[in-house]
Amino acid sequence: MKTLPINASEEEIRALVIEWNELLAQEKYEEAIDFILYENTKVVDGEIWIWTPEKLERAVNTYGMPWYTKEEYEAQYGDEFSDLKVSSLLHSPNSKELLDKISFEINYYTVSAERAELRGITNSDYENIVGDVLYDGVPLNGWNSDLTAIFYLKKVDENHMTLCFQDLHVM
Question: What pTM did the predictor assign?
Fold first, then answer.
């Protein structure tokens, strides 16, 4: 897991998100899972949701709906958005354009027990959450999409934090 100093700048946080994006662009989903924390205590439709490399890949391939297989997604929505791949922000021919159009929103806060319950994160060590990052415009197949990755900023010890992945979906 890659960490940052607890007082990391917004540029350092943004660079960590871009590094994670590059792993997705290289289809290194297992490495992307190991790169940061993944919050696996979320309950979806009565079941505990666990992010795996396969589910992360499906979230990309199905435009943010990892509960579908690619075949189920195509049957439901057609193949217009099938075969989606994350584009590199550093090595694409249109890297500058992609980087200029994505949005990083970084917010700092503390999570109270009440807020944790409202957000459904009471099974987590929510008291270590110090903020969140919205990465909007995840590039797919060379274009900025409506796909948004959501991360918590989470302390891993007194001096370090990392990204804690929450979701990848269309906002």
Answer: 0.90
